[in-house]
Amino acid sequence: MAYNPVFDENSGNSSEGKYYMEQSPQKAKKCWNFLSRFLVLLVFIVGLVGGILIGIYAYHGSVSNSLCQDQSCQHTDGQSKTTTIPTTNEEQCPNRNPKDDTPYESTLFAPLTIKEMKKVSEILWQRRYITTIDRAPQSLEENFILYMYLHPPKKEDAIKYLYNNGTKPGRYARVHIQRGAEQVPDIMEYKVGPLESISGVTVAPLTSSGEIHFNSRPFDSVEVNALNDILRTDMKALETLMRDSFDGASYPEDQYIFYDNGPPGMKGTERETRFIIGFGTLEEENVLYLLPLSGTVHSPGTNVSEWYPHSYYYLNQGPYRTVSDLVSAYNNNIIRKVRLPAGYRNTLRKKSYPKRDIYLPLREYADQPGARSYMPQGPRFSISGTRIKWMDWSFHISGGQLKGPALFDIRFKGNRIAYELAVNDISLVYGMDSSGHNSIVYMDATYGIMGGDTPTTILRDVDCPSYAAVLNTSYWDSAEQKAVDMESICIFEADEQEALWRHYTPSFAGGIRNRHLIVRVPVVIGNYDYTFDFHFYLDGKIYSKGIATGYILSSFWDENNPHAGKDKTRDAFGYRVSDFHTGPIHDHMFGFKVDMDVIDSSNSVEVIHWKAGDILDALRTQSNITQVPPYFIYNQTRYLEYETLQREVGYRLNYDNQKFFVVVNENKRNSWGVKRGYHIAPLATGAQTLPEAHPAMKALSFSKYHISVTKRKEEESFLSSIYDINRLDDPKGYFDLKLDNESIVNEDIVNWVTVGFLHIPTSEDVPMTTRVESGFILKPFNFFDTTASFDMPQYTEDQGKSEREPAFAACIEPKP
Fold it and tell me: Which residues cross the membrane (predicted)?
């Protein structure tokens, strides 16, 4: 039958479809069934592919939360549980750079910059009577730059500039020169500047020739290379002994020589460098896997040809005058021997490398991001050069290669609080039964707190949150004779998520969150990592602390040590902490300089004695009363006794006789007539336990006192000398010399604060010691009329009237 299409004039459409359906219903039904099946199959395929894609997406979402940041997805947490990440359409939080364009060197106390160090080095290289080389040193018989850092202005000049429109002091560098080329080698220190000058820079000596003996110098890479050369022949002679004893190890392929076993002898005019052999599977293992083979190198002066090794010990047996004597005793089986098990060396990297054990199951929810803080409307602090401002606080951040971080000109609400708050030194004293490194004493400023052998860089999201502002500092690398820049200081506001103060009643509730500013400086000194914190609080407190972590310095564990008892798990010096090592006892004592300026520089120190006794004892501290008033229900009370220190003095804390140390301004009082002051409050701290007769106690004398007070002097800028640990018989800068009975009433005074902790290493310190800390608080003490945080928005609920902190719109944390 012919097909003739009909046009429907009424509808304006072709009637072809209608005609087809009317004329061929069976054919149309077959076509619709086929189309339906095709659509079902298509939906199934799309669903299958979509499901696969969603599964892949969800799997990767469990690894990285960032994939789900802007949409909803699900992922498993490794524990067969499902977590939903909600959708968000929020925008990124507003942010700004808290640092302006002010150059570091334009601010008064800024650490030396690379540009300034380069200028200083070029000036000194041109003066061949000071330096003899302008390259990396190759010999001890050369004059080269050892250290370089800011030489701060005199306090008097700085105060005039900061507060009285005085002339801005120039910037100067303090430079240490190792002078091996001189007829009588020594160390000299110079003051170089002003660095702003184009042609008028002067170089002025700060010490005299011969004042610092050459053999009292710190270790450097030139000396270490010379020592390695001296010992190369002896190490070859010991090859069979070391292979037999130490799991087939040989030098230098598998082992290293560990020096720096301070001090280098007992006299500053001599130099005896002890060394010990250790495994070298990781750079850091020089402090983990030391072996029972040691000796000493006679190493005075610059003539390396006169140096020689002596006094060898093997498993604490010796001394053997030469390596030949030791090898002969070993080969003739007249000494005890040790044989490490085969394959032992191959286990060390895994034992010591601080990495997550992939064979252990993750803790529940450990694959999800942890809690974190960020700034919903950008930083609330600002940085101009190295001057920092936050919530009515202002101060300058500084620091030097040797002594560590320092804060200057600290102000709160326009009031002077302190002129200088600075780390000065860290002392460590070890006890261990080891021929190679017994009786070790370290003073870390000798090695450089903010610029030693290991440059320090901030680990973001470990040391500091990603939103922290970071400042760079520079230090002088003596091995390369160049300045090195590093990210070393971070500044951020932190939320402790707790109350600074709170109170609740049924009719009233109030409080404020404990937010504060943190200045943090992590450093690396050999095996230990230290972090120094300065916390600034809304109520006027400052919390300063030192934190230690890193690798312990271990000692070889000898199962058959004749000095040990039957208990093979510990000895007189510590516990066994691994297969062949013990953790020797030691301490960490942090020495701070605290130059308080309560309103101005005329200050005194009041010691408030916290006492308990009879009622009359209490009342007689104030009057001549003779009878106990009848309203006391029993004849015992607590009371205070006040003392103004008259002369320079050092104190050790005694918890049976507790004291408050308050720096006061006798001429400035609050509205209640009380002298305005700041309380120096050491927190939990260890104490120096060495007796006065110990050979190192003069050099370490600062560590005897938790709090000392001296009259401020420019020539007494630090609490210790970096050379004294290497001249124990004649220390020049030991702290007791500062306590020379001068008046400290209404004077510019300095409080020296030493806090720390005693460390008995345990198995939990291997491979890594988790943080241990100690510190002190500077707290307003009648400084204000009332609590100093009531100019901040806070939480208040009072009979229907309420106040809250400023609201913020939810937003996405900015990426670092």
Answer: 38-59
